[in-house]
């Protein structure tokens, strides 16, 4: 029984590894499985990003915002600072939402690929709408 579970576990992990896209960052160009997929630009020392297709047409802007939240503790009132990204997509609906910040560009690229936001150099409108419905405006509503 233990051997069966072990083999099953190895099979599941092997399948999940086979389905993962290999993401590499070459400057501002994001390569998915060795092919240029999109451009992800970020100003120096900023958590904001601009997402472009390979023709350098803006697909989305991820703008960093800061917020504070008032918290009551046993020692009094304290203020907690947090940062998040306001996202504006260049699709037909001009979809908007919010997401957490990413400390490195590769994590941001992985999130874009995982959610299928860019396919064949264009925004996937269905995935963008689903992404925005899932993310919503959690951070600005916390203020």
Explain what this protein looks like in three dimensions.
The protein has 143 residues and is α+β, with helices and mostly antiparallel strands. Helices cover 30% and strands 41% of the residues. It contains four helices and nine strands. The strands form two sheets. A seven-stranded antiparallel β-sheet has the order 1-2-3-4-5-6-7. Strands 8-9 form a two-stranded antiparallel sheet. β3 (35-41) and β4 (49-52) form a beta hairpin. The N and C termini lie far apart (52 Å).
Strand order of the largest sheet: 1-2-3-4-5-6-7
Q: Count the beta strands.
A: 9
Q: What oligomeric assembly is this protein in?
A: single chain
Q: Which of globular, elongated, flat, extended, rod-shaped describes the shape?
A: elongated
What gyration radius follows from the Cα positions, in whole Å? Answer: 19 Å
* Succession of helices and strands: HEEEEEEEHEEHH
**What is the average of the pLDDT values?**
85
Low-confidence stretches: 14-18
Instruction: Give the class from helix and strand content and strand pairing.
Output: alpha+beta
Number of helices: 4
What is the CA–CA distance across the termini? 52 Å
Helix share bin: 25-40%
Largest sheet: 7 strands, antiparallel
Residue share in β-strands: 35-45%
